[in-house]
Amino acid sequence: MPTSEPLNSKLSTFDRLCEIVAQLRAPDGCPWDREQTHESLLPALIEEAYEVAGAVRAKDDANFREELGDLLLLIVMHAEIAQETGRFKIDSVIGDVTEKLIRRHPHVFGKSDARDSGAVLKQWESIKRAEKTGKHYLDGLPAALPALVRAQKAQSKAARVNFDWSELRDVIAKIEEETAETKSAIASQDRRAIEDEIGDLLFAVVNLARKCKLDAESALQTGTDKFVARFTRLEDELLAQGKRLGDVDLAELDQIWNRVKA
After folding, report:
1. Which domain holds residue 20?
2. What's the structural domain count of the chain?
3. The pTM is what?
């Protein structure tokens, strides 16, 4: 006999989602859902976050809504698994983040007079440091973030405590310095030195994006999309000439590439 209760259609949409997930995880629920763990769901969680980002960049509201739903589903699934083992409930997750929002926005819910974005961000960092006494300032920087995102987040956090270049020309000079050091490392043929200097160069370029008020991850994504589109047009032109990639030398590819760019 089934052990799950009938779904309650009178619940709020969020509570109904939680109920559905609980039923999927029940003994008579879905075998696949019942087998899932926090670890097994991690790849999907990361993938869905990227798909949300893709929908935002594409300005596709229908897809954006759908991807947000998929991401929310995984969050509810994680909370349900935690509840089954007596660790915490989804209400605790929502309660914690609600209290954090109130605590870290004293200019809205308290008596702080911070009114511009810069002051608000510095206040946020100050409150975070007070909450996490005994830890270094950048200890909370997630190691699992994509490298470009992590670099920009580290730079932004450092800037909030006044560790930042004051002028854009200083950032560009740093890129030029790191480029020279990268060339020197390449000349030395020391693989570790080359890797180290390329890392410094990439970090400096991320800093340039940040100082220009751009997101480095988005900028690189746009650059990659542009390359893919142009390369696809190059391939189409080759095919129209009865040729294939791999059978044409670089000089001819460059000629086609320049036409595509133009």
Report:
1. 13-89
2. 3
3. 0.67
